[in-house]
Amino acid sequence: MRDIITVAKFTMKEMMRRKSFIITTIILVILIIIGFNGPKIIKFFSGDSGEMMQGEKIIISDSENVYEGKLNELDQQKLEYKIEITPSTFDEIKTRINNKEVKAGIIIERKENDVLFRYIVNDTMSTMPENLNEALQKLYTNTQIEKLGLTQQKIKEVMPEFEMNTEQIEEVKGNSFVIMLISLLLFYAIYFCAYQVSSSITTEKTSKIMETLVTSTSPKTIVIGKTLGIGVGGLIQMLILVLTAVVSAKLFLDPMLLEIVLSSTQITPLVGLLMFVFFILGYFLFATLYAVTGSTVSKPEDIQSANTPVMLLTIVGFYIGQSVISTPTGDMATFGTYFPLSSPFLMPFRVMMGVASVQEVILSLAILVVSIAVVAHIAIKIYSNAILNYGTKLSIQDLIKMYKAK
Amino acid sequence: MSLVLKNVSKNFGTKKAVNNISLTLDKPGVYGLLGTNGAGKTTTIRMLLGIIKKDEGEITWKGKEVDRKYVNFGYLPEERGVYPKTIIMNQLLYFAELKGMKKDQAEKSIEYWAKILKVEEYLNMTAEKLSKGNQQKIQFMTAIIHNPELVVLDEPFSGLDPINTELIKNVIIDLVKRGKYVIMSAHQMSTIEEFCSNILIMNKGKAVLQGNLKEIKDTYKANRLEIDVNKDITKIIEDLGLEIEIEKNNQYKIKIDNEEVAHKLLDKVIKEKIQVNKFEIQKPTLNDIFIEKVGA
Fold this sequence. Notes:
The complex is a heterodimer of chains A (406) and B (296). Chain A has 406 residues and is mostly helical. Chain A is built from 16 helices and four strands. Chain A has helices at 2-17, 19-36, 38-46, 90-98, 130-147, 152-158, 176-206, 210-216, 219-252, 255-265, 269-296, 303-326, 331-338, 343-352, 358-386, 396-404; strands spanning 57-61, 82-85, 104-111, 114-120. Chain A has a four-stranded mixed β-sheet, with helices on one face. Chain A is elongated and about 95 Å long. The mean pLDDT of chain A is 81. Chain B has 296 residues and is α/β, with parallel strands linked by helices. Chain B folds into two domains: 3-218, 3-Layer(aba) Sandwich (Rossmann fold), CATH 3.40.50.300; 224-285, Alpha-Beta Plaits (2-Layer Sandwich), CATH 3.30.70. Chain B is 35% helix and 29% strand. Chain B is built from ten helices and 14 strands. Chain B starts with a strand and ends with a helix.
């Protein structure tokens, strides 16, 4: 146990001292901060563009009285920007835009039997806000139908608001977009941490330190210690990123929006704990698989091809998880729940969505733990025999022989 | 008796890498392990260190079966290696801790050996900034910092300059004085002759010659004469039917079958009143014995 801790501590320190680790963490922290400041940054860079932002003013001129004085009814539409209805010419609107009194202007004109909206802004990239366009069209139609003698009530009956709502057979909680996002983050965290195990072992083989190492402690200690060390290093990195996200959300995000996001994710303490447990177990499963591939190559250039089969397994597991998140019940969900390569990517979310039973969670965890034990046993056996092989990349047959060897 | 290998064998597939090897180290000293590339030396070393398992035989240390969990040998592998991007002090501490040392103990030992091996100034540098020779000295330190009773050195001098070779030689002599057991594998026969009282020569996994080096040499007859004279004696040598191996400035190395013919040559040279600066009848060197046993 003492040696496992020594190997884990050394591996973790080495991983966190590496420039690539420090730079990646800094870049991710910056990206998270930028992400949470997205709306502010967009506003800063969009600056004087004609794109309408909340609270800005737009002037509407209906000199030809196309709306027959009913434009004031736009106030009922709850648009997020201020509207001023004043008869104005193009030059008058242009002057007011240049003086920054208004953001944009609309001149309504008749064009034969049609209606023309001239949207006036100071750049060519902006288009008329979609909701304002719809509101103007609807107001015009209503005005014209009213002229035919129909009451507002009748108009509503003829042209009701159509609302679309998708509902699943079983009641599912949580926002699927947020779930997929967290699942994707979990996948990358597991994948990159596990991948580090493989490259760490290959580095030791490449630098020929392995022979000294295996006379200092047992291969089992090395595999477990390395896996633990890199796992803890990865967790620390994730913790830094999560903390950055939490602090950024508190500091930069609109409290209302934050409230909506948090309530839609349904992350309860139990779900949080399950995410942590499945992250750890998923990481151990893939890390031990990567330990095998890392020990089979002697040159850094071979590591990519050696890791491909495990990488494919990781992706298969992740995609099963993704398909189950969109269809959380059914045969695929049952398979994904018990299949150890996919369960880490979907079980916390099935619990989050309220579609997994306690028995399913326990059985899924049990299968995962047993799978880790089996894979770790095979990995340590192969690793013990493969690490001192400095020749060409080992084939599957070689690995089977190594597993069977004493 | 401390280290005993008894009828040890190891197979890799159908290839017998080590075939029925036995050796005994019963007192402190340096034991030489010789053989061509692929002779089975490294496999033997890996088995006695417990890195790989033997298929047959017995390996004991102080009467107990060697198990990596219980023995604490020092090892300098043939494949030189250090962590390139790790601070030297950190990697030495890492290996010392894995070998059961406490941090303060390890630091003292590292400082001691760094001073002896003249690498003190590099302890806070990363290994990639060190020369190959200095990296080798660092790796040598990992083999001895934990004060092991048995040290296995696989080609300890390869790639070292004469000054560093001398440094390592002095450390090996010091280890033996402290009662350590050293197993050394080397290709330079002169090094083995200088250090080892007992040797084992391996060829294709088998022991082809082993025992006390002096006793082995005593079983061989003289086979070479070295003579240094002040005149050309080529004709005298040829008249006696002898073959000159090397001739340079009237210094001759001549192949002989027995000592008598050497004395005959000396008589003739003296009769011719030629000045003799050196006359030495030589027994086969370890190099000769090695070539004879494993084939040129």
